[in-house]
Known about the structure:
With about 270 residues, the protein is α+β, with helices and mostly antiparallel strands. It has helices at about 10-25, 35-45, 95-110, 125-135, 170-175, 185-190, 220-225, 230-245; strands at about 5, 45-55, 60-70, 75-85, 115-120, 135-140, 160-165, 195, 210-215, 250-255, 260-270. The chain has 8 helices and 11 strands. The strands form 2 sheets. A 7-stranded mixed β-sheet has the order 1-2-3-4-5-7-6, sandwiched between helices. A hairpin with a 5-residue loop joins β3 (about 60-70) and β4 (about 75-85). This is N-acetyltransferase domain-containing protein. InterPro entries: Acyl_CoA_acyltransferase (IPR016181), GNAT_N_AcTrfase_prd (IPR038764).
Amino acid sequence: MPIEIRVVQGYQEYMACEEIQRQVWGPVNFAFVPHHMLLTVQRNGGCVLGAFDRDAPGHPMVGFTFGFLGRSEAGQLKHASHMAAVLPGYRDARIGERLKWAQREEMLKQGITLITWTFDPLISRNARLNISKLGAISRAYIRNIYGPEPEDPQGVLPSDRFQVEWWLNDEAVMARSQGLYRSPAAEALRTRAHLANPNPLEPSEEPIGDAFLMQIPLDVNSLLVNDLQRARAWRYQIRALAEAAFAQGFVVTAYAPDKDVGYYLLERREG
Length: 271
């Protein structure tokens, strides 16, 4: 599929970003980022990239990513990647991955070496992209970042997120960018560390040792439809285990999907 990735330009392309948001997240109850904000951010150090289908009439935009300048807790200048979306008909074509690599190149041109963003740790597709394919890491868990508030333990799942750090000049990231790194498969991870949460309906083990595995359901969206109680159990178990691990200096460094679950590898790091 001939997809062109480039900087978004002109009114029509910024409006296309708005339309993609509506198609991906729905026109109701979603506060989309308007075209004038995207344009302003782009003109002031941020970055809005589009993916264009060169085979389709008019070369329409089929995906985009958007972020802005920020600072880390240590005061380092970074790029805060806020939004990435690909139209449903173009999923599984590596467009999201290509947008992220293009984002990396644009930031390196600015001298920026860190990009951060958040994602739901229960969504295997995003874990595979962010941790396995891109080489990002996570050591911060944010509870219910987008609501609803007050949080209802019997209602809608809280919008918990991992915050990831993508260190653009990290050796593992550079190796991935050149196609020289192969992420470990689930079997390799299972032989490397023990599983701390074998059953979402029971308390997990305490984070111990130098490394452990944390599993998630492979298809949480199916659980949300067919077994909300189990999906809720996964949410609160992962919250408790990840927060305890991060407080002790563990970092998410790898992810691999398996038959019905996926495995995060958490390793203890100093500093």
